[in-house]
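re: that chain from earlier
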Amino acid sequence: MPMFCDVALPVPLDRVFTYQVQDDLPQAGCRVLVPFRNEKMAGVVVRVHEDPPLVEAKPLLSVLDREPVIAGPLLDLARWIAQYYLAPLGEVLRGMLPLMAEVRHITLFRITELGRQVLHEGAEKGSSRRSKLSAEDQRAEYAVLNYLENGETARLSQLRSATGASMELLRGMVRKRWVLRETEAAARDARRTVRYAVLASEERLPRLNENQQAVLAELAGAGGELPVAELRRLDVPQSTLTTLVRRGLVRLEERPAEFHLTGLGARPSVHELNPQQREALNAITAAVSSGEFRPHLLHGVTGSGKTAVYLAALRYSLEAGKSAILLVPEIGLTPAMAAQLHHAFGQQVALLHSALTPQERAEQWHRIRRGEARVVVGTRSAVFAPVPDLGLVIVDEEHDASYKQEETPRYHARDVAVMRAKLSSATIVLGSATPSLESWHNAERGRYAKIEMRERVNQRPLPVVELVDMRREFQETGQEHLFSRALIEGTKATLERGEQAMILLNRRGYSFVVMCRACGHKLQCENCAISLTYHKSIAGDARAHAGQRLECHYCGYKRTVPRVCPECESEHLYFLGAGSQQGEERLQEIFPGARIGRMDRDTVRGRYDLEQLLLRLHSGEINLLVGTQMIAKGHDIHGVTLVGVVGCDHALSLPDFRAAERVFQLMTQVSGRAGRGELPGKVIVQTYYPDHYAIACSRSHDFHAFVAKEMKYRKWMHYPPFHGLANVLIQSPHLEQAAAWAAAIGRWVQQTPLTGVRVLGPATAPIPRIKRIYRFHLMMKSENRQVLARALRAMLAYAETQGIPRRNLIVDVDAVNLM
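^ sequence. v structure.
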């Protein structure tokens, strides 16, 4: 009987594809190369069987793995994600496997019969077919056709070098069907190696010149071997080493490259756990010992020592012969956490996050799979780490929105981690000072065991929070100031005492609106329906990307700052709003003697930028830090005694039911940066809404009071955690098309009885255009998640009958971002 296999491919189609197996029989969970349309693609086998498909099956091209790279609970997890989040299984599996470096993708072009016809007709007749092109582009088109005339395929790089054709021109030729674009995939060795020069002989031949003698001396002084890259520091020609190799005095060896963890600063201090920490640890270790699935919510106030509990629980898990995964919300936090784990567990620690190169990610993944690294720390994708014998999963700062994936598959790493632990019969700990309302609700209903740590380490007091009513500030001063008098005085006193201060200003750039005072025109991004942010050029600023510009923070579009209004040519352009860059400039004016640093996406872009900035902060080189919400993310700086919060409450006016929760979480988290050392802390919050319950509860550090208030509103309005919610985006590059599709979905909603489902919309999305894509959305809510899933699948089935492509209809289950 012929054998067949079902392969999940990374394409936006909710189905698998059947191929015929010839000689090499793959197992479920192995990667294979298969033909798909005009391409050769890598996919994952999900089933091997003898059931012939209804149409003739194409044969497999090759099998990439001898053993499954994803199997057992991980394959079950992939199926659950595909079902729960309504995502194509192939795209789920692609996100779970950080092995793209092991597959080489080549873009090829081939001439079509129509292209031959145009070429043979000549330029005169051919020009009548085409749209208006420059003479240079017409010549480039015919150069491409001439190059491909022999019928063989050519790589993109070959075409560019031979004809000078741009990618845009080639896309146009594909649209006109003159050439065909193909993609070819093949396996490649992605292992990182380092070439070493090794001293093969101590003999000094008399005819060696000075350069050759210098290389040999350098090798001898280094113990007989050095990486070739380090030898390049010598001022000698590259041919010198080649000559020494040819004469048998030196040999070259390829060795696996070592992976070095970053952020390995001073060894973290070790304290004996206090009673509340020991109680929390005992609850976690008892669950690990049981070998059963047991979820826990660890609610500990900022500075209560949750990290120490994590480290002790991880150590217990390793000693019990089990592996562990620790998730953190931001890449910037990964090196610091990895440093502590490295000091505790050495080379048993592996990193997984998007800042690694594809080769490094593949290398770390294989280390984990081989069992060499039994503790994995990383961001949301680390939840898929192939650790053997998983015993413990920890999700730090489980409330953080960064755990939600904003591309397909749109999974939430916290919820996926819970399911991963369930499928592996492991213990999971969700930790936070401000738990999400969904996790808190699960703990209240008994689904999660609740562990509370209500006191800071060494019984340090929580910081005193002072509210500054900016409405009264304006009435008393008669002017609009970025920083209040209380914050300026508090910061001045803090710096004079030799202590450190942080100021949260949760906007990037200098000003976030540029408007013409004459006609009211706002300068918007040409790709997105959003105002451009002004980034000012600061004299003496040596940082990269510090030049003056207007920038869109959604698509990255940049333009120069115009001298006059593009609409009315008025010179009266007005810059509104203040971002972290303006905050830094104002603080330099107010405190000329302060050592000021800034932490935002403009100063922290490279892999080591955050690490260097935090080292400067820890050492006291920086005594005043201003930045966006990045400064609130779990940093433990003992010298910080004052935290200022500026403009945090603007989020309360956003059209999002989670606005109050986010403001409370951000204020509580950033307040927790103060007073973590021996000295008490203070927080000064500038607000226009001092009576709002989110502000009032954060002032008193009363999480329970905030939850009680917010839960009432959520229940009244049928929002999570009481109802499941899905946000459906209908999008297209053409406004008319997007509107027509949204109208079709709207008619279906009105005509179809959706029992138990509430539908809002469709309506224009809060940001109606992003990256030149027009957006409409509707929200579906239901108390029963199975009912909600059935309604969403019915809607997708209807959309398919209406010819709405799957990639243009995005279903975001448990949506976090509604903008």
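DSSP finds 25 helices and 33 strands in the chain.
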